[in-house]
Amino acid sequence: MTLQRSEAYAAATGVPARPGVPVRGLLDTPAPVLRDLRERAGRSPARLVFGEGDLVVVSGLPGSGKTTLIQRAARGLGIDSQDTRDRWDAAMPGRLPYAVYRPLVRLAHYAGLRRALRSGASVVVHDCGTQAWVRRWLAREAARRGRELHLLLLDVPPKVARDGQRERGRGVSGYAFARHRRAVGRLVADAEAGRLPAGCSSAVLLDRDAAAALRALAFGPA
User: Fold this and answer.
1) pLDDT band for position 209 (50/70/90)?
2) Cβ neighbours of residue 135 under 8 Å, at least 6 residues apart?
3) CA 216, 31, 218 angle in degrees (round to 5)?
4) Considering its fold, how many domains does the chain have in total?
5) What is the pTM of this model?
6) What sign has the CA pseudo-torsion 128, 183, 114, 50?
7) How many Cβ atoms are within 10 Å of 184's Cβ, its own excluded?
8) Which InterPro entries does the UniProt entry name for this protein (predicted)?
9) Which domain holds residue 159?
10) 4-18, 21-35, 104-118, 120-134: which range is least confident on average?
11) Three-class secondary structure of residue 206 per DSSP
12) CB–CB of 184/129 below 8 Å?
């Protein structure tokens, strides 16, 4: 996987940007780029910079640390369904099961995401991995505004993700977690093989240590 015109790069010593290489048979179409920051023994970058107006989607298992990463590194730029749920939880009667108003929470979340996308601003979107249609939506929006879509993929062991769910006091059922494992497993395997979701210009693979080292997701001129 090579980078021809993407403006995504890792702003840190020891994280080389791969040189652009022309892609035969593709006119003005860049090949996507993969940066694997797993198992770097403390040498992971603290900052990733993307082009102004680009979109970033953060995917991984429930409990892998997506929300924590977005809150720490993309303050004010993140769109996370958990934030929408928290607002609705605070407004609903305490005894009302979440399942009753879950459809309204999802509707409110996607309405908020649509507003953010239509603003033209750079956005960092929380993705559970199973909603491929959301990634397709983001890819279309990036293309519409003439910008690029980037994938940050948290690759953590299932046990670590389960522990993360317990730490936050919210888990998913065994059935749902199995669906997430299959979906995220495909994303990781495809990325390692050089296949990214349609419309995605680059991917960054992160393990738990690399995610913890990342302090900022920034947008601006390369």
Assistant:
1) very high
2) 57, 127, 149, 151, 197, 199, 200
3) 15
4) 1
5) 0.83
6) positive
7) 25
8) P-loop_NTPase
9) 33-84+121-220
10) 4-18
11) strand
12) yes
**Cα–Cα distance, 67 to 82 (Å, whole number):** 8
Residue 41: count other Cβ atoms within 10 Å of its Cβ.
6
As a whole number of angstroms, the distance between CA 41 and CA 96 comes to 46
- Mean pLDDT calculated for residue range 24-40: 71
Identity of the residue numbered 167: E
| Residue 65 maps to a domain | yes
In a domain, 52, yes or no: yes
Query: What's the distance, CA 89 to chain centroid?
Result: 24
C-alpha dihedral, 42 to 184 to 121 to 168, nearest 10° = -70
**Percentage of the chain with pLDDT > 70?**
86
Beta strand pairing call for 55-59 and 33-36: unpaired
Its sign, for the CA torsion 25, 7, 207, 178, is: negative
What is the C-alpha to C-alpha distance for residues 138 and 148, in angstroms, rounded to an integer? 9
The contacts of residue 69 (CB under 8 Å, 6+ apart) are 58, 152, 154, 211, 214
Decide if 174 is inside a domain: yes
Nearest to 59 by CA among 133, 136, 126, 138: 126
- The CATH number of the domain where 129 resides is what? 3.40.50.300
Give 6-75 as a DSSP string. Answer: ---EE-STT-PPPPP---TT-TT-PPPEEEE-TT-TT---SEEEE-TT-EEEEE--TTSSHHHHHHHHST
Residue 206, Cβ density class (10 Å: 0-12 exposed, 13-18 middle, ≥19 buried): buried
12 within a domain of the structure (yes/no): no
